[in-house]
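Closing statement on the zinc ion sub-project.
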Amino acid sequence: MQLTPERLAELRRRLEEAHGDMGALARWAEEHGDELLETALDLDRRLAYYEPDMYIKRCSACHGRGRREYPDTSTWRGGGYAGQAITVDICDRCWGTGDEGRPGTDLRALIADLSLMTEQQRRLQHLRRLTNDALDAAEAAGIEDAVNWGDLSCVEAALVLTDEGRSYYWVIIEEASPDAYKLGVYVRDWLAKRGWTDVEVLTEW
Ligand SMILES: [Zn+2]
């Protein structure tokens, strides 16, 4: 049902006619309650479509525009090698939606997560190099085990997160028997001396 000024005036007139007369009001509600509810819902849909202030928390940083001015070219990233020019970019309070109540994707948090992953990957690459250093020195250290010394190498270092929230590292060494216990202990000790105290060593052919 379309909400026109005529419809509104009619509803108002009926309500006024029934004013103070509870019996008349009850009859009116019986006859026109559904119609009034439908009209109110229609109005609600229209208001939601036009997004007035009552439906959104208009962003106080960008006034609902979704983008704003920053004092330098690094904009929401902040600092770094930035040029000294006022620059428009996505608003870092509502992240583009203009609505503080329903912000968009927090790009700063996203980038922080990615940086953390990159940092962890670097640490794992370092762990793999350390493990290979240990293997290079193993034969000279007198380790006797079921090992192909020619091709022995660490092929993977991983950070493991368990379903119970425990985390540890593992390294996979190829060209060694799964039973190469002495080699495993040697590598674990080597890594522990260099600060890596929670590494599991897996060996395989
Ligand atoms: Zn904003």
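The first strand starts at residue 67 and ends at 70. With this model delivered, the sub-project is considered complete and its resources will be redirected to Aim 3.
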